[in-house]
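Note to self: keep these together.
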Amino acid sequence: MAELKPIALVGLMGAGKSTVGRLVAARLRCPFWDMDDVIGQLTQKTIPQIFADEGEPAFRALEHALLRALLTGVPAEADIPDAWRAALEGFARTNALPAMPAVIATGGGIVERADNRRLLAQHARVVWLDAPPEALAARVGRDPGRPLLAGVDPLARMRELAARRTRWYAQIADIRIRADEAPPEAIAEAIVEELR
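Structure:
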């Protein structure tokens, strides 16, 4: 690979970041971090529980602190509960972050914060898994694990998120891959080829 930076997969929910990320990491023989899974481990809560109990701002603050830890080895100062902070600091130490290369599956909303976009642009090779809202809505449907889809029409919400986030994905992406026209294995192989 040309640069020794973590590889961060971005894109809307349902684009396949977790599935494809695991495959890319296996091909590159490097660590894989699914940010939503790590957040669940750190907080001992599911993402919907965090949204319900703490609110989206608390989730986004922890997401930012974790992203910074994964990319730089130093968690960001964040307005998060002390227990989460301690767990995050322990996670960073235990895993000798930043691990490079590594593959990181970000949450779809990671680009909502300008400081996250800056971190990604500066410290990662960013791969955008792009797919139309119609394909993504069909994939995720009314998944109870997706708090941004709770109680709303999935297609309408996916269109709204795409309208807001697409420009940010495009702004930071080093590589853009269509994520709705091939199986995950082929998408992972295309990413590995692009990274060479």
